[in-house]
Design brief:
5-stranded mixed β-sheet, about 20% strand, alpha/beta, about 190 residues, 6 helices, Glutaredoxin
Length: about 190
């Protein structure tokens, strides 16, 4: 007799979750070869960040505006615990790449805070002492460009927006990521 009320409840739960399941199923992890295109970004927070990226001024820009052969883009969120663990490792990767003769003039770094506003990413940048541009992305334009919203995701893209290296989730050792990146940078 108690089974009858359970069936409508289970049906309601399944109907509620089915759109969510369909939405998540539509997202496939980004892979090498994915064409993310000319990704739009918000304005850098400072003139120094704009200068690092080779931009004339701190204004909204696209991937093609960045003066580098490759751009390493970190998709993160300021409330993500995995992203918090990733921050010092990514800082170390930046340091290693900046000192590497093969990479220092070819790769620029930036992070995009998915769903985060300027205040949140300013606090993130200060707290984690991030030495490269950190941009707000309140509309998750990066996630839409790669059709993937979980984070962290680290992408190395060329000037056409083609993904040439990707790591989904946090990575533990900057040295390993550097080795993988060096293998694809020409």
């Amino acid at each position: 007799m108690r089974k009858a009320p359970l069936l409508p409840f289970l049906a309601a739960v399944l109907l509620t979750l089915s759109p969510l399941t369909a939405a998540l199923a539509a997202e496939a992890e980004p892979r090498v070869g994915l064409m993310a295109g000319n990704i739009p970004f918000s304005a850098p927070l400072t003139p120094e960040e704009a200068q690092y990226l080779g931009l004339d001024k701190p204004a909204p820009f696209t991937l093609k505006d960045i003066k580098a052969t490759y751009v390493l883009i970190e998709s993160f969120n300021t409330t993500c615990p995995h992203c918090m663990m990733q921050a010092p490792v990514l800082n170390r990767l930046y340091e290693l790449a900046s000192q590497d003769a093969q990479l220092k003039d070819k790769v620029k770094f930036l992070s995009a805070g998915q769903g985060n506003d300027a205040m949140a990413v300013r606090m993130w940048k200060a707290f984690h002492k991030v030495p490269f541009p950190v941009l707000p992305d309140p509309e998750s334009k990066l996630g839409k460009a790669i059709n993937f919203s979980p984070y962290p995701v680290t992408l190395l893209v060329d000037k056409t927006g083609k993904v040439v290296w990707v790591h989904v989730g946090a990575f533990e050792k900057a040295e390993e990521a550097l080795k993988e990146i060096k293998a694809v940078v020409k």
